[in-house]
Amino acid sequence: MNIKEVAKLAKVSTATVSRTINGSDKVTPETAERVRRAIETLKFYPNTYARALGSGRSSLYGLIISDLTNPFFPELVKSFEEIAVQHGQEVLIANTNYDPHRMEVCVSRMLQRKVDGVAIMTSEMTEHLVEELAVRRIPLAFLDTAIPQKGVSNILVDYAVGIDAAVEHLTSLGHRAISFIAGPVSLTSARIRKRAFIHCLERNRIKLDPHFMEEGNHRTDGGYEAMCRLLDLKVRPTAVLTSNDMTAIGAMVAISERGLEIPKDISIIGFDDIELSSFTKPPLTTVRLSRQEIAKMAFRALYNTYQSGAAKGAQYPIETSLIVRQSTGPKPATKR
């Protein structure tokens, strides 16, 4: 089976078949669909390596994430991959596990495979690694950490809106002793969320108790340990806001082990709205950050930059919103 037979069945030239396979925007949607049907009918599988050598394009995008064990990232990967397939692209996934050395290995893999663009959904990227990619004119899309420039786009999450809504929800329930379990200080997104929380308390004229500020690791064990420290305080918080849902889930375990009830004794709010959050006991109130929207914007940023050549990247805003479930309730009537 070869490209000539596909062209004959689709009633187009071999060049049109090649353009369709390479995702060119010079082929009309109707013609591209006819070519794809012919490819499927004939069970034609293009040699992607040879195609990359011939065209200089790999039809391969890199996607770098921090932690594959955090459900936030598999959901993001799934959405990004679905969009890529719709556009005739493949995805090379790399997981850094928050390790800068692994990040270097990930970037090296991307360069070896001659990717057409890289979506960097993590904060561990150093300046020299960005330069390694940029000097080869590889389009880049970052999450929260970049300033749009030639070939570089940024997905900018509005964390403040979601955190404001979470704090306002808690204050409307009578809570004033509100704690925050932040993520690792090394992560840009964790620092942004922490700052947003502090600013929100200030706007609501709530005094920040430094003992109520804890740091986790964006994983369940970090949330568990941070919550244990909060529960050991002489005066503990009546509500806790966390930097992500995995932290909240770990905190919920610690609360339950102390014989306390959520939300009767203490309210808790997560951040991300991973699928698991609606199945905790009780279901977790959380701030929704759409992985589907992040994936769509990241792919659009790479695709638009690549198709337009060395164009300047853009800023792609992402909204957040509060999802109220059953882990929040009125401030306890009496102190324990």
What report would you give on this structure?
The structure is a single chain. This protein has 336 residues and is of the alpha/beta class. It contains 12 helices and 12 strands. The model has no long low-confidence stretch (mean pLDDT 88). The protein has helices at residues 3-10, 14-21, 29-42, 48-55, 72-86, 100-112, 127-134, 159-172, 188-203, 220-231, 245-257, 291-307; strands at residues 60-65, 90-95, 117-120, 140-143, 152-157, 178-182, 213-215, 239-242, 267-272, 285-288, 315-318, 321-323. Helix 5 (72-86) crosses helix 12. It has 3 domains: 3-46, 434 Repressor (Amino-terminal Domain) (Orthogonal Bundle); 58-157 and 290-319, Response regulator (Rossmann fold, 3-Layer(aba) Sandwich); 159-289, Rossmann fold, CATH 3.40.50.2300. A 6-stranded parallel sheet has the order 2-1-3-4-5-11, with helices on both faces. Strands 7-6-8-9-10-12 form a 6-stranded mixed sheet, with helices on both faces.
Summarize the helices and strands and which ones pair or pack.
Layout: H1 3-10, H2 14-21, H3 29-42, H4 48-55, E1 60-65, H5 72-86, E2 90-95, H6 100-112, E3 117-120, H7 127-134, E4 140-143, E5 152-157, H8 159-172, E6 178-182, H9 188-203, E7 213-215, H10 220-231, E8 239-242, H11 245-257, E9 267-272, E10 285-288, H12 291-307, E11 315-318, E12 321-323
Parallel strand pairs: 1-2, 1-3, 3-4, 4-5, 5-11, 6-7, 6-8, 8-9, 9-10
Antiparallel strand pairs: 10-12
Helix pairs in contact: 1-2, 1-3, 5-12, 8-9, 10-11
Protein name: LacI family DNA-binding transcriptional regulator
Keywords: DNA-binding, Repressor, Transcription, Transcription regulation
Pfam family, one: Peripla_BP_3
